[in-house]
């Protein structure tokens, strides 16, 4: 896993023997054991790393009006009950939340308004709820709806 894994030597002196993995990959999921020997004593701990993978098809950035699919999967072992997607976490009548049994969200004609933060939330049969956030980038035109723009003589026009 080198060079993605590191230990903080200065933290070890203070009793912190954390392992840092950057970036985390799907194959990193699993059980990790740490053992620390101090004199005749041996201390150990087990930590399970779960990984959520958000996949975009076609890969980012997406071109405006070209169909896209976002899928969300995790290494959790229980049965998936529901996947919900939240866009920009709006509240009220403009909320954009999509829930389904599969982990895939398809947008047939993505617009610039679809860009930004998306969160997928996975709910499992064992009541576990896990989520991941993904920043969707869309290439397109985010200008006025009318092709005519008026500007005063002597001023700037964008």
From TrEMBL:
Coiled coil region boundaries: none
Domain Ig-like as annotated: residue spans: 50-131
Recorded GO CC terms: external side of plasma membrane; membrane raft
One function term, GO molecular function aspect: MHC class II protein binding
Gene3D superfamilies, per database record: Immunoglobulins
InterPro entries tied to this protein: Ig-like_dom, Ig-like_dom_sf, Ig-like_fold
GO annotation terms (biological process): interleukin-15-mediated signaling pathway; positive regulation of ERK1 and ERK2 cascade; T cell activation
Database matches in PANTHER family: MICROFIBRIL-ASSOCIATED GLYCOPROTEIN 3, T-CELL SURFACE GLYCOPROTEIN CD4
Protein name: LAG3 protein
Organism: Melospiza melodia (Song sparrow)
